[in-house]
Amino acid sequence: MEKKFGVLIVDDQEDFAHGLCRLIGSQYPDLVCFAVRSGDEALDILERESIALMITDLRMPEMDGLQLLDRTLEIEPTVSVVLLTGYGSVETAVQALKAGAYDFLTKPIDQDLLFRVVEKGVERSRLLRENFRLKSLAGECELDQVIIGQSKSVQRLKETICAVAGSDYTVLILGESGVGKELVAKMVHKLSPRANKPLVSVNCPAIPSELLESELFGHVKGAFTGANRNRKGLFLAANGGSILLDEIGDISPQIQTKLLRVLQDQEIRPVGSSTAHKVNVRILASTNQDLESKIKDNSFREDLYYRLNVLTIEVPPLRERKEDIPLLAQHFVLKTCQELNIPPKEISPEVMAWLSIQEWPGNIRELINFVRRLVVFSSRDTIDMPVLSLVTKGNGEKSIELKPYKQAKAEVIDNFTRNYVTVLMRKTKGNISEAARMSGLERVSLQKILKRLNINAQEFKQ
């Protein structure tokens, strides 16, 4: 067993908790054991220490064992939780196991049984953590191929997606129009345990309010004019998987009420039916609106907002990640060339400099469409300034207001250098000597670059 793992004993009988700790320590001296008297103290320990196994009394004042179980698995789902009570019963054991407990022990404790539970529980936690780590690494590799960029904001976005995907909680995805919220939702689903089940996307504003209820929850024959047969609805179609409610800020108060019931009771009722159907669906919701402001003007339910906002992903706008524009632009050029079945094209430094200084209020979507036009109007292997001039004049948009050549070129080079060095440091885990060898740079030169760009190699050593 590894030193970094700990065991946490929670019992309002302090002497019993410490005695149990001493007993476990005598058998497993490499394990760090903590003994506390209450659920609140246990949660404090869980926030600070690497706990693999928690043995908690079921009956305690203020926060009982089942409540502590729920809170614990929210903080760290890999902890093996064992419920302990002097009032053991089959019903209580079943309730605890259904709630996510690893095992169940009764007082007085059988020493051999305790040791078996500790050993297997710690090993289970170790395997779960290793599994999560491997899944996270695989997810990061897949995300790198889908979400293009090396800026700090994009790296944080990828880390958040990996962390959120492993849970089953509702996710609220925030961001301006065109930043890629739907792509983020798809990756959350793809990296989740529900990946082999359907992801159903609903563009809420595109469906008239009076029809949206039927689309989401279905209807029975005769429920309204034109309802000639029963219809399942999208929630039942997504059963076992996920549903993306795109631009949820635009739904009507009536639909908000219906959604709240789904989130609370995990059941839907088709229009015109008196029968409710249980559903097992993870809800992913996205919006480009400020829902808190909509709550203040009473156009969005506060209780629904807090039900949706369990986990939040904020997708950064393109203006906050301009250093990613060269990577994005070249990626979209190659993708467009593939779609048109033509040889790949390059972007000239002058055009790349121009692209890099634009604000792009339409974000990624606007950049993609603009790059497509550049490719279509370019008859050569390189997309140059005459093509850019043709595209901008032809569309009456984005007049060419270039910075001085040297300044624009320096910005492009800096962006390239930052992206290159960030990838280099990540691959070498912050080893400057190895990075210098791999890049062909002198060690001193690489250190100067890191200092100039304010990149700390120590941050990559994790």
Brief account:
Helix content is 51%, strand content 13%. The protein has 462 residues and is of the alpha/beta class. Strand 9 and strand 10 form a beta hairpin.
Describe the model.
With 462 residues, the protein is α/β, with parallel strands linked by helices. The chain folds into four domains: 6-132, Response regulator (Rossmann fold); 168-316, 3-Layer(aba) Sandwich (Rossmann fold), CATH 3.40.50.300; 319-395, Helicase, Ruva Protein, domain 3 (Orthogonal Bundle); 405-460. 51% of the residues lie in helices and 13% in strands. It is built from 19 helices and 14 strands. The protein has helices at residues 14-27, 39-48, 65-75, 90-98, 111-146, 152-165, 181-190, 209-217, 234-237, 253-265, 291-296, 302-308, 325-340, 349-357, 363-377, 385-395, 405-428, 432-439, 443-452; strands at residues 6-10, 32-36, 51-57, 80-85, 103-106, 171-174, 199-203, 242-246, 267-268, 277-278, 282-287, 311-314, 346-347, 382-383. The strands form four sheets. The chain has a five-stranded parallel sheet with strand order 2-1-3-4-5, sandwiched between helices. Strands 7-8-11-6-12 form a five-stranded parallel sheet. Strands 9-10 form a two-stranded antiparallel ribbon. Helix 4 (90-98) links the parallel strand 4 (80-85) and strand 5. Helix 10 (253-265) packs across helix 12 (302-308) and helix 14 (349-357) crosses helix 17. The longest helix has 36 residues, at 111-146. It is flat, with a radius of gyration of 28 Å. The two termini are 22 Å apart. The mean pLDDT is 85.
